[in-house]
TrEMBL record:
Keyword vocabulary terms for this entry: Membrane, Transmembrane, Transmembrane helix
Stated name of the protein: MHYT domain-containing protein, NO-binding membrane sensor
Bilayer-crossing regions: 15-33, 45-64, 84-103, 110-134, 146-165, 172-193, 213-236
Region (Disordered): 256-295
Amino acid sequence: MAQIHHVEYGWITPALSYALSVLGSALGLVCARRIRTARSAGQRAWWGLLAALAIGGTAIWAMHFMAMLGFGVEGTRIRYDVPITAASTVIAVVAVGIGLAIIGTGRLNALRLLAGGLFTGLGVAAMHYTGMAAMRLDGTFSYDRIRVALSVLIAVVAATVALWLSMTVRRGLAIAASALVMGIAVNGMHFTGMSALSVHLHERRGDLAGAEVSGLLVPIVLAVIFVVVGLVYALLAAPTDDDRAGSAYLDARRDGVQPAAATPGPGPEPVGLRARSTLGQPGTPFPSRRDTLRR
């Protein structure tokens, strides 16, 4: 059995993977919050897609690959099958997207939450082990079934909590705290699954097909940067409730309709200098002696 190193370069790769999962979770929670307030099916689909890219693509898959940079096996090189690696990305994004669609299209209840969490959690576990299947090395894999089952359970629980948070968390501080918790859950699932792995090296070594980690690192980092920048831009460019209210007010004024909020009500009866300034003007009644004494 070969010696496996999960943090071959020290704690830099786990720290970066955790940072990616927190960043993706925070952006995903902010995008998911817009699903409930969207005014049309197209807007709900748009924010659901952005939330799936943030959580599935950045918080889960990019975190997985970053953690895999620190994975090494003594006595063999490691390469990655590019099509299978790309398929694992699609699995993560689609699984999160379907989970958000399950809980975001109707009234949130326990049945919807459990169904969405189960589907998304199984999808996350499928992404993890598909990514592991993409590895090419001079050996064969074997897994401890108990730890595999534990990793799947963690994935389902983490996905259920993440979906619940995505539909309930509103304030900035709560979103930040939730993202920190989601980062711990995602990394816990990953390293639990990795601890189930054993590698048995082949006696005869051959050429390995696939791409080196260094060849995949640059395009993956660029893709993550592009997704994060795009998500931030979409959030900043999206109109707020105040923007919508202002737009409705301007539309009403342009159509010649006085908005109800801007309709002036009867003001207070003028007193003092303002009262004196109105005396003697046409249509202004002269105050009686009783009114004068009352004032």
